[in-house]
Amino acid sequence: MPNKSAIKLITAEISALESLLKTIDESFDHATSLIASCSGKIIVVGIGKSGHVGNKMAATFASLGTPAFFLHAVDAAHGDLGMIANEDVCILISYSGQSDELLDILKPIRRIGADTVAITGNPDSALAKQCDFHLDIGVRSEADPLGLAPTSSSTATLVLGDALAIAVMETRGFKEEDFAVRHPGGVLGKKLLLTVDQIFHKDDEIPLIDKDIKIQEALLIISEKGLGFTGVVNDTGSLIGIITDGDIRRGFEKGGQELFNMTAEYLMTDSPKSIPANILAIKALEIMEEHSITSLFVHETEDPDKLCGVVHIHDLLNTGI
């Protein structure tokens, strides 16, 4: 039986977001333009639960290419206003729009010369009226039974902050490669930055045999290199085929011992797939999955005919991508 309190609260928060949707107007566009054209930093100012939301908002801006940080309103009043410069934009968050801590630092911020954007749930509040732009979250009551705890208001503010950060990102033309530069760590960083040439097998590790070599010797090479396959080259050294240990097993089941007297050219699969060395590892994995294969040959980025390595699916999976 679903918890009635939970259902009621979630329903109320959904309703709050629907109210927020109705407030997105020209003010949002003006704030987006102001932030996108900012030559300095975005400073998100708040206190209490609004401060927690503001911290996340600043982190989202920074993550998406807009330099930003969070400033606690109390700290600002005790010296940290020095972090603000006239080319900056300050986003001040207060549900009531009447927080003394924010109103106390608003005049100093304006004297510094920074532009200001207020985010409140009260368009008639002092903060809303005294800032350059005001964004209304559209929430007039909280979702908790007492109507006191920051619930609907903090949720709507969080979503508005995300919307603002995304709108600024799109206005600034922030691309996937820009995102990658700012997220070098962890699995996400690997997906965006790790290229095949950082993990492939090269030089003597590449399993290669001549097309005229007998299958028995090909099996020894496959076993020696430990990758489960070998490439086949012609008289000029160009890659023309691939033989896997599975190919040999299936060939033996059909032809018996006679298979070992055949040449590599007889058993190989023509035109094995290859990829450039600078391709993302995650893309190589997608190619393997698409074609149901477990390995790819790697060629020089500028020369598709020059083999420089091989990559196995285990190499990719071991990176954690």
What this model shows, in words?
It is a single chain. By secondary structure, this protein is α/β, with parallel strands linked by helices. It has two domains: 4-174, Glucose-6-phosphate isomerase like protein, domain 1 (Rossmann fold, 3-Layer(aba) Sandwich); 196-317, CBS-domain (Roll), CATH 3.10.580.10. It has 14 helices and twelve strands. It has helices at 4-21, 26-36, 48-63, 73-77, 100-112, 126-130, 152-172, 176-181, 186-193, 215-225, 245-255, 264-267, 281-291, 313-317, and strands spanning 42-46, 68-72, 89-93, 115-120, 133-136, 208-210, 229-233, 239-244, 269-270, 274-276, 295-300, 303-312. A five-stranded parallel beta sheet has the order 2-1-3-4-5, with helices on both faces. Strand 10 (274-276), helix 13 and strand 11 form a beta-alpha-beta unit. Helix 2 (26-36) crosses helix 7 (152-172) and helix 3 (48-63) runs parallel beside helix 7 (152-172). The longest helix is centred in the middle third of the chain and has 21 residues, at 152-172. The radius of gyration is 30 Å and the shape is elongated. 34% of the residues are buried. The mean pLDDT is 91.
